[in-house]
Each structure stands twice: as C-alpha cells, then as structure tokens.
Design goal:
By secondary structure, the chain is α/β, with parallel strands linked by helices. Helices cover 39% and strands 21% of the residues. Strand 6 (138-141) and strand 7 form a beta hairpin. The termini are far apart.
Length: 152
C-alpha cells in the first residue's frame, strides 16, 4: 500500500469536533428527548459503520458521539414557565413586525431550534431582545421593530 493512501486514510479519522456553544445548555423536555435520540442515532451509526468497516462513517459517527455525549452531559431541562407576564425561556411568543408580518416562535435550546418550524434559540438576537418584555412592548430585531402580541 502506498504511503499516500495511508495518509489519506488517517486523515479520515481526524475529523474536527463540531463546535460546542459556550452558552448554558438549557433545553426543554422535548429538547432533551431530541438530544437523546440524536445520541442513540450516533451510537447506531457507529455500530453500522464499524460492522461495514466504513472508516469515513466511523469518523463521522465518532465526531457525532463526542458532540451529542457532551450536549447530553451538559443539558439542563428548564422548568416550564408558569408566569406569562414577560418573555422567558420556553415561552411561545407572537410578534408583529413593523412591515405587518405576524410571526410566532417558541424559545428553546440551541440544538432544538429550527426557525422554519417556529422555534428559535434562547441565545438568538430575537430571543434575547424579547426576554423580560411583555405584551405591547416593542423590541428591535433584525434591523426592524416588532411588537409583542401574545405570550403563552
């Protein structure tokens, strides 16, 4: 086997770690379930790649295992909000932007955030602007203003 081939094979084993946020890893109960499902999927992916002798697949699975293991070990399930007077982690907030668009977002953990599905990370600029504000308050977000219409 040529030395060049061995170097390329070794490089596959050295995939860089996925970046892990410096922010507290607050999650909802559903977010913890998503992390646990991702960890289980990474474990399954590792087993499949190992059985197939797939070095590239093993490398990806190891990286995913490191990431999801770290995220699971630092996850803190935030209590469900009981006070709806001001925006907090776990709330679903409806805003009306200054161009008339109405949007509703759930504020969740970083790994569970998916704006296309109506959830944003608690560390996103919009969530940070909303925290501590109540219905009728106006916040600056994404270069425009938005009024809080509902908190649930």
């Amino acid at each position: 086997m040529s030395r060049a081939f061995v170097k390329d094979a070794e490089a596959v084993d050295d995939l860089p770690d996925r970046p892990i946020s410096d922010h507290p890893n607050e999650v909802t109960r559903e977010g913890l379930q998503q992390i646990e499902a991702a960890l289980a999927a990474a474990q399954d992916g590792f087993a499949v790649a190992q059985a197939a002798g797939d070095r590239e697949g093993l490398s990806r699975a190891r990286r995913d295992l490191r990431y999801w293991t770290a995220r699971r070990s630092t996850a803190v399930v935030a209590p469900e909000p009981e006070d709806f007077s001001v925006v907090r982690f776990g709330h679903t907030v409806t805003i009306v932007r200054d161009d008339g668009r109405e949007q509703t977002f759930g504020i969740v953990g970083e790994d569970e955030a998916d704006p296309a599905r109506g959830t944003i990370s608690h560390v996103s600029p919009l969530a940070r602007a909303l925290f501590g504000k109540g219905v009728g308050d106006v916040v600056s977000a994404a270069g425009s203003e938005a009024e809080i219409m509902n908190i649930r």
